[in-house]
Please model this.
Amino acid sequence: MLVYEGIKSGFINDVDLGIIADKIRNKYIEVIKRKPSASEFNSWKNSMQYMRGVLSDNEIPNNTGIAIEYNIPPTGCRIDFMMSGFNKNKSNVVIVELKQWDKATEVANLDGIYKVNTYTGGGLRDVNHPSYQAMTYANLIKDYNESVQLKDINVVPCAYLHNYYFEDDDTLLSNNYKEYTDKAPLFGHNDVIKLRDFIKRYIETGDDGSILYEIDHGRIRPSKMLQDSLTQMLQGNKEFYMIDEQKIIYEYALSNAIDTVSSNKKNVMIVRGGPGTGKSVLAINLLVEFNRRNMTCFYVTKNSAPRSVFSAKLRGNFTQTYINHLFQGSGNFVDEESNKLDVLIVDEAHRLNAKSGMFQNKGENQIKEIINASNFSIFFIDENQKVTLKDIGSEDMIKKYADELGAGIYTYELDSQFRCNGSDGYIAWLNNLLEIKETANLDIDGFDYDFKVFDDPNEMRKAIEEKNSINNKSRIVAGYCWNWISEGKNKSDVYDIIIPEYDFEMSWNLGNSTTWAIDPQSVNEAGCIHTCQGLEFDYVGVIIGDDMRYENDHIVTDYSKRAKTDQSLRGINKTAKEQGQEVANKIADSIIKNTYRTLMTRGMKGCYVYCVDKELNKYMRGE
Model:
């Protein structure tokens, strides 16, 4: 998605007329669906003057393609400046990461992390080395854009710090970062001629922007999913380059953990992040690195679904004992002695329970047990993904037990979006739609995400089956409003979910498999929140049952419509008796909405929806 596109001659004319920042701003509002900040607007006014100076060279063709603020699907990342053209008939795109820095202070013991004064946000901020950022953005385009692959388009990154004067021993140019600067050269205020020569090396003849058009309209390739890349990651291969705050948090987690263990301290790290912000990718990258450094480290989840899928993917490459050791349930630390383990990485920490064991009658609190068992514990959390009454994981509770056990606390937040085609707007729209949080995103028009509402569940199923036939990465899920028939738990031809009006019949996921998310035939079965949370698909089809309706211009939830076999709200009637119906309704409302929000954010490329309630269907369609 391009905010500004054109050719060199038009770009230079827009800069000379003083209208370039206004053009970018107007298109930004149209495309991104929000107004840019004053600092962003001023950065365009400033940086584009410098890029105009760089391009003021007769050997750089006037019809060189120009693009500004390219949003990289399937992320929320944006490339500042792009140029396209040919060199000996080879299609090339040069991407430029623009920085307004005039000074950068290296953060000790962190790979390529700097403190700089920034125009965006103001004040000192932790940021990545510019060459690392440019390199990872180029890799994202190569990994996800099919046109780049099929048309053999060469994507060449660099970074331009137009206010920065490099010193002879400048840390940005240190040999420590040679891997980054070799792949994405770094240019400063006095390097205009060097930057021109770099551009001319790849662009000898112009293309009138045709190559940029190919990239902007290129099909997003089948997604690289964590569960698919796990084996390669554990074998030491770089499958996911961490970007933006992912990389910063990774470096701090690594440094803090090493310092904690070596000095025999106890510390806790909390990482907040909504759906698709890369929590699990960051968690697995840390797991790999800690184990590479011979630190005792386990990946912990309460939900067994992701652990089962990870185990299935790793089987054959690692022993089952090793796999079971690496990926552990959250109830495994009840009797663990204090500080026995170096690091515990807890994914989906909001799903933790108070008690452990099959009957949840063991221990005091899983959060306390995890902090107690490890020197350093990392909790990845999104409190808006609590989906049962037993989910007690919260930032406040983690801090409470950290204080009780004498542990220091670090807190960080992930913002960048890596699911839903990187559309922060889709997530914000969904929050507004479900009345979870009021946002300015009132409609979905213009979002680069395939969202559809179907009147007939059979049509939705057909659409998901068509997507799944491509690569077995699309699934149907449903709210837990239909009983799981006990005698048919292992038979896909025993239909639990029945919608008589449309002759629609479907089985819940089978009880004899823990890997519904990747089983070859499981597109014929509907998953629930417990089988898909913590996992992702290309497309997800969501059946919204009659526990959620649309009445009197508002979303209404009704926990009485939940299936009797559903354990998510077990104890809600007791809550109603003890604390009042209003309190019970509020708790249930949050859980039901969180459940559908989570289901509707499992798809990286698209979400298809059918609502039992016809008014809700109309509302979701925007009618």
